[in-house]
């Protein structure tokens, strides 16, 4: 069984899956960004990012030449690979697994291989941002056409499953392969480093620290969280923003000289577990559009922390059990966010209990379960 994987560039959430699959089937990943560089400019962070964990070890891969005038994964014409299908055919793939269709070459590959070899698809889109109107009706017809070329889709959670069903895929064409992160790395004990982070920020052992980690952009709504925090009037509570982005200046201006609001610039993967473990509560207040999941929530839960998320986060329906692993608030509603924040931070012992529950829940969302689900689909199709 030879599986060709089509994806844009090395990503910390996908590379471990490729490594697990490569140990059990013949696999090659075709990276369509195609320049061979692991440094990528991230417009959300506003800087070039080079991950500090290995993303190209343990599996076979090829860089596919990208001829796009404006290369990148931020638009449809940013991925143009004239040689992609020829490279896959030369490798004699028995099936393809495509990550995302919204690139010129990915869609062409899906169409090219339909009815030739099995076409598997992985994406995490949801219906959370769908609007009504003629434009959406046309988009609905188009998406049904796209997914008519897919033999089997691997959905990441319940919101994603509903999306695939709306656009034409049947239950027999869908399999659950959970969105996942490296649970073990985020759960590994980093108490000493976490304590140093807190003391370095002037946060006392008994104080509560709320963490936001990600891109400072409108989609993530960090300003909503800051404004809600300013209304709390709880002297033993702190808020930490970790990251960078276009809203950084606005956030720092709004924070003023409040010594309970802290900022740390973008931190790479190896530093993040200690930052999660330094907090008592993680918050992802995204308004979207396009917060299809929110894998930072998985990371915080693996670190044993409760989570507070908006109802526009794709993961909310699956990971956040109100009063058990955290809370969900109404998107964009500062009173809803403030109410949930107050209830959570007023009892530190409750936060600890919710954090234990979160850690237990996230064990079911692992790389191994995702890889096993993928292999089950691939092997069943290949056997038939």
TrEMBL record:
Output one GO MF annotation.
glycosyltransferase activity
Keyword annotations for this protein, in alphabetical order, are:
Transferase
Annotated InterPro entries: Glyco_trans_1 (IPR001296), Glycosyltransferase_grp1 (IPR050194)
- Lineage: superkingdom: Bacteria
Q: For the Glycosyl transferase family domain, which residue ranges apply?
A: 196-358
Locate the coiled-coil region(s) and give their ranges: none
Which Pfam families does this one have? Glycos_transf_1 (PF00534)
Q: Does the keyword Transferase apply?
A: yes
Name of this chain's protein: Glycosyltransferase family 4 protein
The record lists the organism as: Mucilaginibacter ginsenosidivorax
């Amino acid at each position: 069984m030879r599986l060709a994987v089509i994806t844009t560039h090395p990503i910390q959430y996908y590379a471990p899956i490729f490594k697990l699959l490569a140990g059990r089937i013949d696999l090659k990943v075709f990276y369509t960004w195609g320049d061979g560089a692991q440094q990528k400019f991230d417009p959300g962070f506003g800087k070039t990012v080079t991950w500090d964990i290995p993303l190209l070890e343990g599996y076979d891969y090829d860089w596919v030449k990208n001829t796009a005038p404006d290369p990148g994964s931020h638009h449809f014409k940013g991925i143009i690979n004239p040689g992609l299908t020829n490279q896959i055919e030369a490798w004699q793939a028995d099936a393809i697994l495509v990550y995302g269709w919204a690139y010129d070459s990915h869609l062409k590959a899906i169409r090219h291989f339909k009815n030739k070899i099995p076409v598997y698809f992985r994406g995490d889109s949801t219906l959370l941002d769908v609007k009504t109107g003629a434009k959406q009706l046309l988009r609905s017809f188009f998406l049904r056409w796209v997914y008519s070329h897919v033999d089997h889709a691997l959905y990441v959670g319940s919101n994603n499953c509903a999306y695939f069903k709306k656009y034409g895929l049947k239950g027999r064409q869908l399999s659950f392969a959970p969105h996942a992160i490296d649970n073990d790395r985020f759960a590994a004990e980093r108490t000493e480093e976490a304590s140093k982070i807190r003391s370095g920020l002037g946060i006392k052992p008994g104080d509560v620290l709320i963490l936001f980690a990600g891109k400072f952009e409108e989609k993530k709504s960090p300003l909503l969280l800051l404004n809600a925090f300013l209304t709390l009037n709880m002297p033993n509570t702190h808020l930490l923003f970790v990251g960078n982005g276009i809203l950084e200046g606005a956030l720092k201006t709004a924070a003023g000289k409040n010594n309970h609001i802290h900022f740390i610039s973008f931190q790479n993967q190896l530093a993040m577990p200690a930052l999660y473990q330094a907090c008592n509560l993680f918050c992802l207040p995204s308004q979207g559009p396009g917060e299809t999941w929110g894998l930072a929530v998985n990371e915080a839960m693996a670190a044993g922390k409760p989570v507070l998320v908006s109802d526009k986060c794709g993961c909310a329906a699956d990971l956040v059990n109100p009063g058990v692993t955290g809370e969900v608030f109404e998107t964009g509603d500062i009173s809803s966010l403030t109410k949930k924040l107050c209830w959570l931070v007023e009892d530190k012992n409750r936060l600890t209990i919710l954090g234990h529950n979160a850690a237990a829940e996230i064990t079911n969302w692992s790389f191994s379960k995702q890889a096993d689900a993928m292999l089950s689909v691939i092997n069943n199709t290949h056997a038939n």
